[in-house]
Amino acid sequence: MGSFEYISVVISIVLGLAITHLLIGLVSMIQNRESTRVYWVHLLWVFNVIVYITQWWWAFHYWEKLDSWSMSDFNLLLIYSLMMAVIAGLLFPVHGFVTDYRAFYYKQFRWFFALQFLWLSLDIVEVVVKASYGLRAIPPDYFLLTTPLILGFLAAVFVKNAKYHAFLVLVVFGWNFLYNVLVFVPIASS
Q1: Phi, psi dihedrals of residue 166, rounded to the nearest 5°
Q2: What does the alpha-carbon distance between residue 91 and residue 139 come to, in Å, rounded to a whole number?
Q3: For a Cys-Cys bond, which of 3, 87, 104, 168 suits 98, CB 3.0-4.6 Å?
Q4: Nearest Cα residue to 83 out of 120, 130, 41
């Protein structure tokens, strides 16, 4: 087993646990539907975070070309993955179930967006490091697509306005679609 395979096992476990948490939360929501008030903004964030995780898992393969790994390379990728898992963890409780997802969302929103702000800031570091190693060039529209989201996440830490949160989740939904078309479709065709 090479270094990439060895490291990818840990990354895959962390990402798998994050997706498992989200799926269990969705199942709990369905099972407790008679006593649960669903909030569409929360539900769309669940979808968006699943997309983030699968995008990261897909893009992780670029690191396979790295010949020599350092502990700092591993730590960067592990922290990045752990942040995604914590973001996912904030969308559903670890124990019990929620009766009002709107109230739950607004109880968690500051942590949720602070971590997304840090995660996306770390994404810039990961993309730049990957490019510096010659593993992949920085996608041409990367900063154009990423900068508004970073600012939107930072603003969301301080803004409790439901219209802003509805707007932001829809923007991120569209961003995920655009990012997949502009960044990931070219990967599949190359």
Answers
A1: -65, -45
A2: 30
A3: 104
A4: 120
